[in-house]
Amino acid sequence: MEPKKNPKKDLNNRSSLYFVLGLLLVMCLALIALEWKTYDSENIYDISMNITPSEIEEDPIEKFKVEKPKIKQVLPPEIKIEEDNVEIEETEILSSEVNKDTKILEPEDIEVEEAEEEVHVNWITIEEVPVFPGCENAKDKRACFNEMIQKHIQKNFRYPEIAQEMGIQGRVSTQFVIKNDGSIGAILKRGPHTILEEEATRILSKLPKMTPGKQRGTPVKVSFSIPINFKLQ
Questions:
Q1: Could you tell me the superkingdom of the organism this chain comes from (predicted)?
Q2: 212 Cβ neighbours under 8 A, 6+ residues apart
Q3: Which pLDDT tens digit goes with each residue over 145-195?
Q4: Is the pTM value of this prediction over 0.85?
Q5: 99-136 burial code (b ≥16 CB/10 A, e <16)
Q6: Structural domain boundaries of the chain?
Q7: Tens digits of residue pLDDT in 9-30
Q8: 177, 184 in Cβ contact below 8 A?
């Protein structure tokens, strides 16, 4: 026996309509949710700023006395009025032009002063080396000079603190001149940093006055080179 179906009570006939209505309802709810706005009920301003003018404490106003700058009065130079009877000495300007009265000097009458040529000798080629104080009676004055120079550097050596902090070290090549009067002249230096160069210059500038070197019995300038090592421990 076949079951009988009432076509008016078949729900499948309106399923597409229900689907569309449900879809519209969901879209409306989503739109309302996105456009929904809420506001905070709390105040957005700082209440602590709502102070009446009477409650504000005014700082006392200090009055300063402004002194006028003192202007130093400069008096004009005194003008001395001379009388008409005073004689005025006039400076005579000699003419440099040659005339018939000009005396012509003969070559024999002209004395020429010869300027002495200053001799500068190297330490290696000098005949008599400069003598360091205390080496006057030494047999080998060169060896004594080198030994006394080393002692002088060790005595006056001081490693600059800035160079220690910066980790600067190295060798400074120096060259100085022992002038013909025994004093120390120009000091040339070249090293890894100016701090070490200045320290080397300070050490050599403390050298004492020496007996000057001689070339053919005449005191002359002598150049001497020595390196100074700065090494961190």
A1: Bacteria
A2: 130, 178, 179, 180, 181, 182, 219, 220, 222
A3: 989 999 999 999 998 888 888 888 899 999 989 888 889 888 899 999 999
A4: no
A5: eeeeeeeeeeeeeeeeeeeeeebebeebebbbbbeebe
A6: 120-230
A7: 665 667 778 888 888 888 888 8
A8: yes
